[in-house]
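Figure S7 source data.
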Amino acid sequence: MTSKVFYMKTTKQSPDDMKRDSIEKLLSQINDTDIFRKDENIAVKVNLADVKNKGCTDPIYVEKLVEILKSYDTNTHLIDSKPLYQLDECEKYTYENIDVCQHILNDSEIKKVDVDGEIIKTAKLSKQIHNSDKIITLTQFKPHHICGIAGAIKNMAIDTAVKSGKIEQYRQAAPFISKIGCLACKVCINECPQKAVELNSIAQINYTKCIACNLCVRICPKDTVKINRIKSDFINKAICEYAKAATENRKNDIIYINFLDDIKADYEDTKQDDANEKLSDDIAILISNDPVAIDQASYDMLNDAIGEDIVEKLWRIIDAQMQLNYADSINVGCKDYELVEIK
Ligand code: SF4
Ligand code: SF4
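Tokens for the predicted iron/sulfur cluster complex:
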């Protein structure tokens, strides 16, 4: 079985009219009959809360998408989930020219979905998103420093879960403190929002309290707290199992749009010097009903553009393909795709 992925090439110089046109043309590929109905609730998953707003989609695309959805008299809103780090650490982004409700999830409304996976038994999703008639996810596809790739699968899994669900996933790869280098300066102990770091000659994380927010990684003056990439397979399994819970039986109700533009590695604001370094020229916008196919196509396109496996180059220890293989094996979608260029 293969899934269709439609794409249009883009460049940094693409004029605004061409960007609007590309959203309209790509959306029309998803279904050749009218796909949206009057009064349908449509959740457009965007990035509204992010450190330095690095995951925000170009407003031109979002404006055009909302204009199309409004033309069907739908009840459209832009939505994002709360990050694990303190909200005051990141900037709240607003699409200024878009006149629809833009809000960050209310964590009190939980939709529990049994998934019985290897790691996740019951996913805790946001009712505000998952009770919508349709969901459209806008994802800035990029290499990710813990999971390997951050695409549609991760967006559906982590960013449509409530906070306790996010923690359950991130905890699979919570950071660790190296035995060498800790000065016992107590910065992490004083700043940890969960009081999860204890001092026993050197700092140690109490994993029963840790929510894997990675704040300690960012603030340690000696770079002694480390991202746990050895556990990337575990977090990827948890992500795929959450994605399964979030998408099961909803194939035609969820549309995934991946942007391969302004591509930088996602370090979630750790102190990496190369966090703002562009990895490639702009490549394409992709659309599909299949989160696995669109992520596999995005990953392949990015690697082709760079000429090597970008995740292996950045973090040798992470097997990014594992996320896609596992998602395919538990039927989140299909990694075999048919790529169709739209002009
Ligand atoms: S901030 Fe770093 S050096 Fe200071 S106690 Fe924590 S781990 Fe040790
Ligand atoms: S120990 Fe580190 S990752 Fe865990 S909750 Fe505290 S600051 Fe966050």
